Amino acid sequence: MDDRREPAAPAVRVSDRDRDEALGVLTVALVEGRLDPHEHEIRAKRALRARTDDELAALTADLPAPAPTRSDQDRKDLREWLAEWRYWLGGAVIMSGIWGARCAQKGELTYYWPVTPLAVWAAVLIAIAIWPRDTGDSDEGDGGRTVAR
Hints:
The structure is a single chain. By secondary structure, the chain is an all-alpha fold. The protein folds into two domains: about 1-65, no CATH class; about 70-130. Helices cover about 60% and strands about 0% of the residues. The protein contains five helices and no strands. It has helices spanning about 15-30, 35-50, 55-60, 70-105, 115-130. Helix 1 runs antiparallel to helix 2 and helix 4 packs antiparallel against helix 5 (about 115-130). The longest helix has about 35 residues, at about 70-105. The N and C termini lie far apart (about 55 Å).
């Protein structure tokens, strides 16, 4: 029997921030009634002594991740919206390049046609930014979640 195995990946040391995140998960579990106070205390002490990510993962493996806070969701939405503007800029560069190549081929400046699709795209992105957000916890369709804005 050949017992050649890949060496296990070395454990990664955790930071204070990692410990704080694990303590946050444990605290939410306590508040939700998933952990009793005694078990929370034991796990919290182990989290504070944890040195590797494996040790922390074992303490929270049977608990669901807490739902993102409103501010976390807002930051995520902003990152996604700014990423859409980067795509818009990439589209502007590509369309302007096509327009410029066509003008060079004809030997004259022609109507800058990229203005139309870029204006429509920009209008949509601006509308997404100013459109009222659904902040209620409705059970309709998407469970009250909002589309990235």
